[in-house]
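Ticket 4471: requesting a sanity check on a complex prediction with flavin-adenine dinucleotide. Repro inputs:
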Amino acid sequence: MKYPEDLPSIPVNYAEEKLFSPEINHLVEKRLSKRFEKIRRDARDFSEKFIYPSALKIDWIIKNEDHDYTPWDIVKEGMKRGYLSFMYPKVTGGKGGLTAEFAVLMEELSAACPGIANIFGANALGAAAIVFSFNPDIWERYLVRAVEAEKMGEPVIFAWAITEPSAGSDVEYDEGLEKGTLTCEAKPVVGGFRLSGRKVFISNGSIAKYIVVKAATDKKRGRETWSTFIVSSSAEGFRVVRTEYKMGQVACPAAELEFDEVFISRRDTIGPVGSGRIMSKLILAASRGPVGAISTGIALGAFRLAAGYAMREDTPYSRSIRNPVIREILVEMFNRIRTARLSYLEATSNFDKLLLPPRSIMDGAEKPYRALTPLIRRENILEKLHRIGDKILERYFDHIVSSGKLDAQYKLASSAKVIGSDTAVWVASRALDIIRPGDHPYWLAAQKLYRDAKLVQIYEGTNQLNKQSIGNFLLTG
Ligand SMILES: Cc1cc2nc3c(=O)[nH]c(=O)nc-3n(C[C@H](O)[C@H](O)[C@H](O)COP(=O)(O)OP(=O)(O)OC[C@H]3O[C@@H](n4cnc5c(N)ncnc54)[C@H](O)[C@@H]3O)c2cc1C
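Returned structure tokens:
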């Protein structure tokens, strides 16, 4: 086989539909179930046209030829379908999608290639704090303008930067922030902050126009001063140091970023100083469900490969569905996928019910808001709106913490992430058991998914840390 021209398309067989009819789903109300199906159908169409034919080639190119290659053509096609602005409130021109809907999209795209899916996933993660800012000033300057650029055919990518070289797990829980391992610092200066330090493993970090950065304003008091900032990739003092050589999900770049005295204006902070801890917890309570969905998608992709392979006429009996042992393994794979799917659907639907800004905000009419644009865009008005936004955010945080909603959701989402990612690794491993080594393209595609699967046990907090943070609740009260 001469690479990469000869690399085949990934074969797809929606074998799971022989076992489960998605339309018969009593977990969610009918209307939502229909929306899920529409999203799933669109994602399948997108995957068949753009991902399955090229995912193996893209992986090969990035690993062997052009380490910094980004499949922009695919990103742009996804952008046209609203995959970048999926979670932006409708008033900003976005789709106003629910977390559960986004998760369904992630599952189906990840079944084809979780690396490509994660470009859209990491974008949503990056934009999440901006969405939850409740801040018309920030919405206007980032989301509205991103959607406007999209309309001109220009993707605007966001990234979320929390991990530091010596603080990975430590930045994901309160006590960790007190350990003194933080190196990034955003020192208060006139009119804003000066950010210095490095962030590592940042998905989309090298292709993002805007990076939402978490940093302490006093690194010795990480817990109390942990805050949220927006940094433009064109800011003076910002540099992409390098992109990682990854084992899996290679289509989505993970970058090390340097901030050398980068000035951040007060208006590019999200929420008051010190609100970063609650913001991080909120983002993780939102995003760990969709990571469960990415994981479920990886498992589903591996199941489709294994079942498709086993169903071929020329597959040897020992690996064929004619063999009851193989059928039993496939059913076990499928059962675990269903468990992972139910877990992420529960976690994301719960998030949408408990914590997503009210539908009136996400779904609000775009036209009346747009009519106000000339007024809103006046700088002095935007500045005032910014302060009002900060106040709303403070109240919202007080409410979700004191009501216990945030903790409740955090546990569910962390659990869905762990269940999903362990399922992904297990199911991808079984696919490699069923498919005979060297039987391409099934074998190549299953190998890729196995490598892709490992990462979901690591990002958004390692599974060990996720289980610890759930387990800690056993000690309380
Ligand atoms: C490809 C990739 C993409 C990523 N994307 C992003 C991104 O977009 N944005 C971002 O901010 N971060 C991102 N991350 C970072 C990711 O969230 C961290 O890698 C993860 O939180 C683990 O941190 P660490 O790598 O420093 O490992 P460490 O924290 O050093 O952990 C190493 C090991 O020790 C264990 N461990 C650590 N602390 C404890 C403890 N207290 N008790 C028990 N065990 C412990 C961990 O479970 C793990 O097994 C990404 C990482 C990767 C690999």
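Notes from triage: The chain has 17 helices and eight strands. Leaving this open until the requester confirms.
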